[in-house]
Design a protein that fits this description.
With 155 residues, this protein is mainly α. It is built from 6 helices and 2 strands, in the order αααααββα. The chain folds into 2 domains: 49 residues, no CATH class; 76 residues, no CATH class. A two-stranded antiparallel sheet has the order 1-2. Helix 1 runs antiparallel to helix 2.
């Protein structure tokens, strides 16, 4: 989506008033405002900490990270989804979110927001975070290695 602002007429409620007024004083054209300053000037989307520009950039980056990771567990075919063959293991992986992972890997962390990407989301107490059954993952991996051989993992 290519939307180009050509004037400083601020009819859009997405811009934060004080910062957008300051941006009108300095540059000669809206095209002179750099991406970061303009992104900071936007009003956050509902239940978000960032405006539409940063939301788009972050969403696209996370999508590309996931789609570009050949080992991501949901990728079929050339991916590694076959490694986690049992429905139990796949259900465990799908149930976890970033809050669960943060609780697992951060010593002393008691709680996070249920959805770490949303402002105002409920609280997830780390004691209640979805765990992961590493024994089931190991069993699935062992079965996969027996089926295809260790050579595949050495590439």
């Amino acid at each position: 989506m290519n939307v180009r602002q050509t004037t400083f007429e601020i009819t859009n409620s997405e811009l934060v008033t004080t910062l957008s007024f300051s941006l009108k004083l300095i540059p000669q054209s809206p095209e002179d405002i750099d991406l970061f300053s303009g992104g900071l000037a936007e009003r956050p989307l509902r239940d978000s900490l960032v405006g539409p520009t940063f939301h788009c950039l972050l969403s696209e980056e996370f999508k590309r990270l996931r789609d570009g990771d050949r080992f991501f567990f949901t990728h079929g075919g050339g991916g590694m989804a076959w490694l986690f063959s049992s429905e139990e293991t796949l259900a465990t992986l799908r149930r976890r979110n970033l809050g669960d992972i943060l609780c697992s890997v951060t010593p002393g962390l008691d709680a996070v927001t249920e959805n770490v990407f949303r402002r105002g989301a409920g609280v997830l107490h780390c004691a209640d975070a979805a765990g992961i059954d590493f024994e089931a993952l190991a069993r699935d991996a062992e079965e996969a290695i027996e089926l295809v051989g260790e050579e595949l993992f050495r590439k």
